[in-house]
Amino acid sequence: MTDDFYVLAILYAKTGREAELREKLRAVVAPSRRDAGNLRYELFEQQDDPRRFVFVEHWGSPAAQEAHHTQSDHIRHFQEEGSDAVERMEVFYRMKLVA
């Protein structure tokens, strides 16, 4: 049994700020992929709703994801400077692979 850990996060941009949020979210992808314990970090935009962005993350452990979320400079910067373009976070699921 491994400690692999998955995250699904869905965020909505404030109306009219879709492009701004897209760029701010894109800016965290490359440094997040370099975070210790990261195995997968992808950003998607819903095709029929450009306000909706989806992160699919795969981490080596819950501790690695927690460190990424609470200690990495790029996430801290987004929380301080970029999150104002977010209307709401729809879901934030922490998951383990079953099959």
Automatic annotation (TrEMBL):
Tree of life domain: Bacteria
Signal peptide residues on this chain, from the entry's feature table: none
Sequence ranges assigned to domain ABM in this UniProt record: 5-95
UniProt-recorded Gene Ontology molecular function terms: monooxygenase activity
Entry keywords, A to Z: Monooxygenase, Oxidoreductase
The protein's name: Antibiotic biosynthesis monooxygenase
